[in-house]
Amino acid sequence: MSAEGVDLKKRRTLTLATSAVGAVGAGFIIYPFLAAWAPSEKAKAAGAPVEADISKLEPGQMMSVKWRGKPVWIVHRTQQNLDDLVTLEGTLLDPASDDTAQQPDYCKNPNRSIKPEYLVAVGICTHLGCSPTYRPDVAPADLGAEWKGGFFCPCHGSRFDLAARVYSGVPAPKNMEIPPHQYLSDTRILIGQDGGEA
Protein backbone atom coordinates (compact mmCIF):
# COMPACT_ATOMS: atom_id res chain seq x y z
CA MET A 1 0.00 0.00 0.00
CA SER A 2 1.36 3.33 -0.99
CA ALA A 3 1.51 6.33 1.30
CA GLU A 4 1.33 8.62 -1.70
CA GLY A 5 -1.51 11.07 -1.65
CA VAL A 6 -2.09 10.75 2.13
CA ASP A 7 -2.02 13.99 4.09
CA LEU A 8 -0.42 12.93 7.42
CA LYS A 9 -1.05 16.29 9.02
CA LYS A 10 -4.76 16.06 8.20
CA ARG A 11 -4.87 12.47 9.49
CA ARG A 12 -3.29 13.47 12.84
CA THR A 13 -5.73 16.37 13.20
CA LEU A 14 -8.72 14.09 12.55
CA THR A 15 -7.37 11.48 15.00
CA LEU A 16 -6.89 14.08 17.71
CA ALA A 17 -10.32 15.60 17.09
CA THR A 18 -11.99 12.17 17.22
CA SER A 19 -10.14 11.31 20.45
CA ALA A 20 -11.14 14.60 22.06
CA VAL A 21 -14.82 14.15 21.13
CA GLY A 22 -14.67 10.56 22.43
CA ALA A 23 -13.13 11.69 25.76
CA VAL A 24 -15.80 14.36 26.21
CA GLY A 25 -18.52 11.83 25.39
CA ALA A 26 -17.05 9.33 27.87
CA GLY A 27 -17.01 12.08 30.52
CA PHE A 28 -20.72 12.73 29.93
CA ILE A 29 -21.42 9.03 30.40
CA ILE A 30 -19.14 8.45 33.42
CA TYR A 31 -20.00 11.58 35.44
CA PRO A 32 -23.65 10.65 36.22
CA PHE A 33 -22.52 7.13 37.10
CA LEU A 34 -19.90 8.41 39.58
CA ALA A 35 -22.22 11.12 40.92
CA ALA A 36 -24.77 8.44 41.81
CA TRP A 37 -22.25 7.00 44.28
CA ALA A 38 -21.88 10.27 46.17
CA PRO A 39 -24.12 10.79 49.21
CA SER A 40 -27.14 13.02 48.72
CA GLU A 41 -27.36 16.45 50.30
CA LYS A 42 -29.86 15.01 52.78
CA ALA A 43 -27.42 12.24 53.72
CA LYS A 44 -24.57 14.74 54.08
CA ALA A 45 -26.71 16.90 56.38
CA ALA A 46 -27.71 13.86 58.46
CA GLY A 47 -24.07 13.04 59.19
CA ALA A 48 -22.90 16.61 59.58
CA PRO A 49 -21.73 17.89 62.97
CA VAL A 50 -24.36 19.71 65.03
CA GLU A 51 -23.91 22.58 67.47
CA ALA A 52 -25.57 22.68 70.85
CA ASP A 53 -26.02 25.76 73.03
CA ILE A 54 -25.59 24.74 76.69
CA SER A 55 -25.75 28.25 78.14
CA LYS A 56 -29.16 27.64 79.77
CA LEU A 57 -28.48 24.07 80.95
CA GLU A 58 -28.61 24.13 84.75
CA PRO A 59 -26.80 21.58 86.97
CA GLY A 60 -28.87 18.40 87.11
CA GLN A 61 -30.61 19.09 83.78
CA MET A 62 -30.36 17.23 80.49
CA MET A 63 -30.95 18.35 76.91
CA SER A 64 -31.13 16.34 73.72
CA VAL A 65 -29.98 17.08 70.17
CA LYS A 66 -30.17 14.92 67.07
CA TRP A 67 -27.01 13.78 65.29
CA ARG A 68 -26.95 11.16 62.51
CA GLY A 69 -30.56 10.36 63.32
CA LYS A 70 -29.73 9.48 66.94
CA PRO A 71 -30.49 11.33 70.15
CA VAL A 72 -27.40 12.79 71.80
CA TRP A 73 -27.81 13.72 75.45
CA ILE A 74 -25.94 16.51 77.17
CA VAL A 75 -26.18 16.32 80.95
CA HIS A 76 -24.94 19.08 83.25
CA ARG A 77 -23.78 17.02 86.20
CA THR A 78 -23.69 18.37 89.73
CA GLN A 79 -20.67 18.08 91.99
CA GLN A 80 -22.57 15.40 93.93
CA ASN A 81 -23.09 13.46 90.69
CA LEU A 82 -19.35 13.57 90.02
CA ASP A 83 -18.53 12.49 93.58
CA ASP A 84 -20.99 9.57 93.27
CA LEU A 85 -19.39 8.25 90.06
CA VAL A 86 -16.31 7.06 91.96
CA THR A 87 -18.42 5.11 94.47
CA LEU A 88 -20.12 3.06 91.71
CA GLU A 89 -17.06 1.48 90.12
CA GLY A 90 -17.53 -1.91 91.85
CA THR A 91 -21.04 -2.26 90.42
CA LEU A 92 -20.17 -1.48 86.79
CA LEU A 93 -19.31 -3.84 83.93
CA ASP A 94 -16.63 -1.58 82.37
CA PRO A 95 -15.85 1.15 84.92
CA ALA A 96 -12.55 2.15 83.27
CA SER A 97 -14.12 2.36 79.79
CA ASP A 98 -11.68 -0.20 78.43
CA ASP A 99 -13.85 -0.84 75.36
CA THR A 100 -12.17 1.90 73.35
CA ALA A 101 -14.77 1.73 70.56
CA GLN A 102 -17.32 3.30 72.94
CA GLN A 103 -15.65 6.70 73.29
CA PRO A 104 -12.91 8.87 71.81
CA ASP A 105 -9.52 8.57 73.55
CA TYR A 106 -9.93 12.01 75.13
CA CYS A 107 -13.03 10.73 76.98
CA LYS A 108 -11.41 7.59 78.40
CA ASN A 109 -11.49 8.82 81.99
CA PRO A 110 -13.73 8.25 85.05
CA ASN A 111 -16.18 10.94 83.88
CA ARG A 112 -16.10 9.87 80.19
CA SER A 113 -16.02 13.53 79.21
CA ILE A 114 -13.82 16.43 78.19
CA LYS A 115 -15.19 18.70 80.93
CA PRO A 116 -16.17 16.77 84.08
CA GLU A 117 -19.43 18.66 84.59
CA TYR A 118 -20.82 17.78 81.13
CA LEU A 119 -21.67 14.33 79.82
CA VAL A 120 -22.23 14.02 76.06
CA ALA A 121 -23.59 10.57 75.15
CA VAL A 122 -25.59 8.88 72.41
CA GLY A 123 -28.93 8.14 74.08
CA ILE A 124 -29.33 4.58 72.83
CA CYS A 125 -29.17 1.44 74.97
CA THR A 126 -26.43 -0.93 73.83
CA HIS A 127 -28.70 -3.95 74.31
CA LEU A 128 -31.35 -3.65 71.60
CA GLY A 129 -31.35 0.04 70.71
CA CYS A 130 -34.12 1.38 72.95
CA SER A 131 -33.79 4.88 74.36
CA PRO A 132 -33.29 4.86 78.14
CA THR A 133 -34.94 7.46 80.37
CA TYR A 134 -32.99 10.02 82.35
CA ARG A 135 -33.44 9.26 86.04
CA PRO A 136 -31.47 11.83 88.06
CA ASP A 137 -33.40 11.09 91.27
CA VAL A 138 -31.46 9.40 94.06
CA ALA A 139 -32.81 6.17 95.62
CA PRO A 140 -36.26 6.10 93.99
CA ALA A 141 -38.51 3.27 95.14
CA ASP A 142 -38.55 1.53 91.75
CA LEU A 143 -34.76 1.54 91.28
CA GLY A 144 -33.57 0.91 94.83
CA ALA A 145 -31.66 2.62 97.60
CA GLU A 146 -28.30 2.24 95.80
CA TRP A 147 -29.42 4.25 92.74
CA LYS A 148 -27.47 7.53 92.54
CA GLY A 149 -28.92 8.83 89.32
CA GLY A 150 -28.39 7.74 85.75
CA PHE A 151 -30.27 6.21 82.85
CA PHE A 152 -32.78 3.36 83.01
CA CYS A 153 -33.89 1.43 79.92
CA PRO A 154 -37.56 0.48 80.34
CA CYS A 155 -37.40 -2.08 77.51
CA HIS A 156 -35.34 -4.73 79.34
CA GLY A 157 -34.12 -3.09 82.55
CA SER A 158 -30.57 -2.06 81.65
CA ARG A 159 -29.05 0.61 83.87
CA PHE A 160 -26.33 3.16 83.23
CA ASP A 161 -24.72 5.66 85.60
CA LEU A 162 -24.30 9.38 84.93
CA ALA A 163 -21.14 8.66 82.95
CA ALA A 164 -23.21 6.37 80.67
CA ARG A 165 -21.35 3.31 82.02
CA VAL A 166 -23.39 0.10 82.19
CA TYR A 167 -24.05 -1.71 85.45
CA SER A 168 -23.09 -5.39 85.82
CA GLY A 169 -25.83 -8.00 85.59
CA VAL A 170 -28.09 -6.18 83.11
CA PRO A 171 -28.85 -7.10 79.48
CA ALA A 172 -26.80 -4.26 77.94
CA PRO A 173 -23.31 -5.60 77.08
CA LYS A 174 -21.37 -2.33 77.07
CA ASN A 175 -21.31 1.34 77.98
CA MET A 176 -23.29 3.84 75.93
CA GLU A 177 -21.39 5.53 73.13
CA ILE A 178 -19.70 8.89 73.61
CA PRO A 179 -19.68 10.69 70.23
CA PRO A 180 -16.75 12.73 68.97
CA HIS A 181 -17.22 16.31 70.11
CA GLN A 182 -15.44 19.52 71.00
CA TYR A 183 -16.15 22.75 72.83
CA LEU A 184 -16.33 25.80 70.59
CA SER A 185 -16.70 28.01 73.68
CA ASP A 186 -17.84 27.70 77.29
CA THR A 187 -21.45 27.58 76.09
CA ARG A 188 -21.29 25.80 72.70
CA ILE A 189 -20.51 22.18 71.86
CA LEU A 190 -19.92 20.78 68.37
CA ILE A 191 -21.04 17.14 68.22
CA GLY A 192 -19.73 14.89 65.48
CA GLN A 193 -16.28 16.36 65.05
CA ASP A 194 -13.19 15.59 67.08
CA GLY A 195 -11.50 18.44 68.83
CA GLY A 196 -9.57 16.59 71.52
CA GLU A 197 -9.04 17.93 75.00
CA ALA A 198 -10.64 21.19 76.13
Explain what this protein looks like in three dimensions.
There is one protein chain. The protein has helices at residues 8-37, 41-47, 79-87, and strands spanning 50-53, 62-67, 70-76, 118-122, 133-135, 150-152, 159-160, 181-183, 188-191. With 198 residues, it is of the alpha+beta class. The chain has 2 domains: 1-38; 49-191, Rieske Iron-sulfur Protein, CATH 2.102.10.10. The strands form 3 sheets. Strands 1-9-8 form a 3-stranded antiparallel β-sheet, with no helix packed on it. The chain has a 3-stranded antiparallel β-sheet with strand order 2-3-4, with no helix packed on it. The protein has a 3-stranded antiparallel β-sheet with strand order 5-6-7, with no helix packed on it. Strand 8 (181-183) and strand 9 form a beta hairpin. The mean pLDDT is 87.
CATH topology of the largest domain: Rieske Iron-sulfur Protein
SSE order, one letter for each helix or strand = HHEEEHEEEEEE
In terms of DSSP E residues, the strand content is: 15-25%
Mean pLDDT metric: 87
CATH superfamily of the largest domain: Rieske [2Fe-2S] iron-sulphur domain
Question: How would you describe the shape?
Answer: elongated
The major beta sheet can be summarized as: 3 strands, antiparallel
User: What is the CATH class of the largest domain?
Assistant: Mainly Beta
Overall strand count: 9
Number of helical segments with 4 or more residues: 3
Quickly count the domains.
Answer: 2
> Fraction of residues in helices?
10-25%
Question: Distance between the terminal alpha carbons, to the nearest Å?
Answer: 80 Å
Please identify, by name, the CATH architecture of the largest domain.
3-layer Sandwich
Give Rg in angstroms: 28 Å
